[in-house]
């Protein structure tokens, strides 16, 4: 994997600056694996030079909530207008995705000029999904209000991605670097065992912000603090926050882009009571950072690109 491109970083509904959920992994071969496809994602693709629609091979749907799925029929229809595709488009997602897509395609009289392969996942069951273009794919159930899956993408061709100078500084040189890159531990002359720590790689997680933990868990979401604690537990080098509730502003205007009156009332009440509840995304980053001091915490924004180390 090469880069992660965020196309939509809002949860539930779009805001003026953030579209609903979607992000893409760009492979080293230059192909695109999309994760989730909220409404309007194809407009984000059009505005993003890094994501070429003709290169989208795999679309992974975490769950069937609209902010993760409603953009897919439109995107798939438009792919038919972009010239002939030799490769199929493979869609993976929980049970319901096939019925939803087939109904949308049939009712709208869409005609796909390429092969669409839909694989549905059984709720609660982890599943190995094979190797596609050198990437081993597996799905793992997550806790949410509806059946939900996280996906693990593992490169089967382990290219050495170890900094030789850094390796040399701890006594790993020559062939031992390749051994480490293949995932095999290396024992140094003094008996020290060195492993290639996968947690060095950037990780990406979701948060819906620092609302009360009871409220977040009830909705099947994580708070900033919970996400930070998770990053600390796995010793992540980097934590990228995304999927922000639309009640949190980008901090530019000092208030949320879109904020129902009920939320505004809540905020006034809590601030009057002296609560430290944050109202912008910078505050969420600070809360997550406090829970994982050794991890670099950043907030994703639409069109942000992160290189995978
Ligand atoms: Zn969502
Ligand atoms: Zn959801």
Automatic annotation (TrEMBL):
This is Metallo-beta-lactamase domain-containing protein. It comes from the Eukaryota. The keyword Acyltransferase does not apply. Keywords: Endonuclease, Hydrolase, Metal-binding, Nuclease, tRNA processing, Zinc. Its cofactor is Zn(2+). It comes from Capsaspora owczarzaki (strain ATCC 30864). Residues 35-244 form the Metallo-beta-lactamase domain. Homodimer. PANTHER family: ZINC PHOSPHODIESTERASE ELAC PROTEIN 1 (PTHR46018). InterPro entries: Metallo-B-lactamas, RibonucZ/Hydroxyglut_hydro, RNase_Z/BN. GO terms for molecular function: 3'-tRNA processing endoribonuclease activity; metal ion binding. GO terms for cellular component: nucleus.
